[in-house]
Design brief:
Elements (H helix, E strand, L loop, with lengths): L1 H21 L3 E6 L3 E7 L5 H11 L13 E6 L5 E7 L2 E7 L5 H19 L3
Antiparallel strand pairs: 1-2, 2-5, 3-4, 4-5
């Protein structure tokens, strides 16, 4: 009986630690009158997926060349969208000034950030 109980506790511990590891994600969105901010921390192994998603979404522009890229810059896309991005493996922050951008630019970045959130929180 003790053996069965011990095995059950071991399995329960194993499953709870795996579950915690897979969902170690923090996402924050601030959509204020003057700006839009998105930040996320996530497991470093998801960095390539996040960078690929961003590069695909802002095409024909691109920001990332390598998974090891550390970015801390204001950037302007080919369509005139201007925003700040800070990124390193396991971390991303995007800030867009609404007064310096069109409504279409704001909606494009907001849509991209919503997609990043989906990419990070959906098990695939």
């Amino acid at each position: 009986m003790k053996h069965i109980l011990l095995n059950c506790l071991l399995l329960l511990t194993l499953f709870s630690s795996c579950r915690h590891h897979n969902h170690n994600i923090s996402i924050s969105v601030k959509d204020r009158e003057e700006d839009y901010q998105f930040s996320a921390t996530y497991h470093k192994s998801a960095t390539a997926k996040v960078q690929y998603y961003i590069n695909q979404h802002i095409s024909p522009s691109h920001i990332f060349e390598s998974v090891s890229d550390d970015i801390d810059a204001s950037t302007e896309l080919k369509d005139g969208t201007r925003f700040y991005i800070k990124s390193h493996p396991g971390y991303l922050k995007i800030k867009l000034d609404k007064e310096s951008n069109s409504e279409a630019a704001y909606l494009r970045i907001k849509e991209m950030c919503n997609g990043i959130k989906t990419e990070l929180t959906t098990d695939r």
